[in-house]
TrEMBL record:
Domain of life assignment: Bacteria
Keyword NADP: yes
Domain Pyridine nucleotide-disulphide oxidoreductase dimerisation residue range list: 345-456
Family: Belongs to the class-I pyridine nucleotide-disulfide oxidoreductase family.
Protein name: Soluble pyridine nucleotide transhydrogenase
Function description: Conversion of NADPH, generated by peripheral catabolic pathways, to NADH, which can enter the respiratory chain for energy generation.
SUPFAM superfamilies tied to this protein: FAD/NAD(P)-binding domain, FAD/NAD-linked reductases, dimerisation (C-terminal) domain
Amino acid sequence: MDISSGWDLVIIGSGPAGEAAAMQAAKGGLRVAMIESQNRVGGNCTHWGTIPSKALRHQVRQVIRSQRNPLLRGLINPRQVQWQDLIRRSGEVIDSQVQVRTDFYIRNRVRLFSGLGYIQGPGEVRVDDPVGRQWLLRTRNILIATGSRPYHPADVDFDHPRIYDSDTILNMAHTPRNIIVYGAGVIGCEYGCMFTGLGMRVDLVNNRQHLLDFLDTEISDALSYHLRDEGATIRHSEEYSRIIADDDGVTLELRSGKRLRADALLWCNGRSGNTQDLGIENLGLEANSRGQLSVDERYCTAAENVYAVGDVVGWPSLASASYDQGRFCAEGIVTGGPVKQVENVPTGIYTIPGISSVGQTEQELTESKVPYEVGQAFFKNLARAQITGERVGMLKILFHRETLAVLGIHCFGYQAMEIVHVGQAVMRQPAPNNTLHYFVDTTFNYPTMAEAYRVAAINGVNRVRR
Ligand SMILES: Cc1cc2nc3c(=O)[nH]c(=O)nc-3n(C[C@H](O)[C@H](O)[C@H](O)COP(=O)(O)OP(=O)(O)OC[C@H]3O[C@@H](n4cnc5c(N)ncnc54)[C@H](O)[C@@H]3O)c2cc1C
Ligand SMILES: NC(=O)c1ccc[n+]([C@@H]2O[C@H](COP(=O)([O-])OP(=O)(O)OC[C@H]3O[C@@H](n4cnc5c(N)ncnc54)[C@H](O)[C@@H]3O)[C@@H](O)[C@H]2O)c1
């Protein structure tokens, strides 16, 4: 075994959390090593999660848009589009991402170790590489950024070629005509929309009473309506009792007594933190039942100089937040000063159409008895939406009736994930700069989707004047 000493920080996992921490620490003058078990950097985010799913969605949206365009409609039949052709394009995006990210490590002189990281004890991490070599890295600090993987209950046969999770769906070699999506969380809703966009018959099975119940109810209802309109059947408050797969398809038996049959099943019901086989017990650490670690406000675990960031610490489990957690944690290690917290994280859900929100929902404001009002803009009335043919959607601004401070932004429709940032920037201003008047008094480009802010703000101001 080769011994490599003198490291300031050894990071396990090169997803957004680990990468951001590595770059921040290296720029702060620390000697940093990164251990990654996959043969390329980027994490599950780049290879199995965010990047491939968003690249796929983009392809599906192109197909959907072609059907709306009279000039292109006859050229593409969504039902003839092959899943593997769409996946190929995602592969190109992944390659570009890996290239850019590998370069970050080279430029910032972060040493990459390819292999499985295992914590042997305080300040000692072993790397087992794929060809049987071993290194022992001695370090002042360890950062666990090992991410998460799809949760697999023991009674579902994930080795069967017709049962997929969000990783293996990227290798699906056939294009089903109908599919069961089990789990209507973010992943289930995003994939459900892609499948309906390709003309598949989709059964979306939800364990809860509403779709994405953390969203503003009006937005969640709009998504349900739209998914049904596109041909999905949504079944709420259902749990599986058995999943039986054969050569031709999958039968899902529900506890309610229903039986659903389809060509394939996509399981997307939760994720587990990657803490197994990592040696955390050698530090006296224990993960919770979902494989996640607890950390304090410095992202430090219960073991001294051992930190954790990203999906492995649970909420919010987003690439967006993971980058910031990694950066802030590394900054804290470098300076020893106070550590910034990741707060007010926007949601960006890439359903078709997309959903994005930041701040409080109507339900939350009502519960806490805040006197609020609503300003709305419907996309069907905006010039930009009419030009692009993307008429479905709305922007909703929630604001305080008396101070006019913006309390929440909720958007459903074309460009929702971009549009939300305009409102977020205003909302983050301290009083009195956080005000609805900003949108009334500021000239925006025209015709744009951002114009929705002016329309919604004027609508809101008119309501409080009534
Ligand atoms: C289908 C899907 C779509 C998503 N879409 C979005 C989205 O649109 N927007 C968004 O913000 N988030 C999205 N997410 C969530 C996002 O991908 C995660 O929050 C993010 O990847 C977490 O980053 P991370 O750095 O914690 O870990 P990961 O990206 O999970 O990377 C962890 C890395 O650690 C490595 N590793 C694990 N154990 C070891 C070990 N012992 N030794 C060495 N290496 C190890 C793994 O190989 C992996 O490369 C999506 C997730 C999924 C599954
Ligand atoms: N656009 C985006 O931001 C985006 C897109 C896709 C995925 N994601 C991330 O991916 C994850 C979504 O996962 P999902 O849609 O599969 O489900 P989910 O997190 O919504 O969970 C679905 C159900 O599974 C249960 N569950 C979750 N983890 C479990 C575990 N380890 N053991 C047992 N039960 C568990 C939950 O209680 C819930 O009832 C979230 O962390 C989300 O942040 C984000």
